[in-house]
Amino acid sequence: MLPWLALGAFILIALAVDLRHGSNGAPSMRRALFWSLAWTAIGAGFAAVLYLFDSSTAGEQYLAGFLIEKSLSLDNLFVFAVLFAFLAVPPGERRHVLLYGVAGAIVLRGLFIVVGAAALDTFHALTYILGALLAYTAVKIARHGGEQVDPSKTFAMRVLKRLAPGASAAASALVMVAVFDVMFAIDSIPAIFAVTRDTFVVFAANAFSLLGMVSLFFLLEGLMDRFRYLHFGLAAILAWVAAKLILVDVWHPPIGLTLAVIAASLGTAALAPIRAQRHERQRAPAPPPRERPATADAV
Fold first, then answer.
1. From CA 281, how far away is CA 259, in angstroms rounded?
2. Tell me: the pLDDT tens digits for 135-186?
3. Per-residue pLDDT averaged across 113-127, rounded?
4. Fewest 10 Å CB contacts: which of 9, 38, 93, 128?
5. Dihedral through CA 266, CA 178, CA 139, CA 73, nearest 10?
């Protein structure tokens, strides 16, 4: 019980810090970069805490789960950026919407984790169903992950407009962020269950991956074009964890191999736009030569 209380207290303090340092609205790019790196370092560093006070296995499982959840959260942020633009949420209000959305997501995912762990322990066949779901999601992301979401065509948005037609842009965005996070959790929670069934490790990986999402959102909002191949990397990660779930009774790859797959998938997705831009510049037609102005001698 003590580890759970300590983790809960830290998360509350972290959310309070995130709210306070961002009380002046949207942060600058430099500030967003600093806090994004800081929260990511703190999240990754928690693996060392588990390594020291629990076991090396717990630390490795947490790190793999944290990287999976953090990478999947990047795709979520791009969806939120489209949502905010569609609802015309003022930049100064986006931080609070995201922060309260993150707080709600931590609570909802905690419930999902407890229920999911109990279900997997009771119904072993559910493991194969979740593996098939992740495989389907991987194919869907690879084929359509680069397309932007149209919030007006979602069922949740249509219901919201009927129930609360006069809701403010910020209130509508907060509801939609919560709805989308529930949808994202359906993919991400099974993914980490492929790494470990320890509910504390699973919850900690989810919670730490969500901390710093606000700063990361403002950092990535203006760089969406540079992540145009991210969905292929995410699809590869989901395909890997789907294979682990489906073959759980006959195949037990080491955690180090999972970490290598995650790093290779994200690294390839990050470098692909750079190579694509280089090829586009090489294939672009050369500009026509400039005509030299006529001189007095030529006349």
1. 34
2. 988 898 888 765 666 777 777 778 878 888 878 888 888 888 887 887 778 7
3. 87
4. 9
5. 0
The whole-angstrom separation of Cα 172 and Cα 161 is 9
What digits encode the pLDDT tens for the residues 195-232? 898 999 999 999 999 888 888 888 887 666 667 788 88
Sequence-distant (≥ 6) Cβ neighbours of residue 75 within 8 angstroms: 141, 145, 230, 231, 234
What pTM did the predictor assign? Answer: 0.81
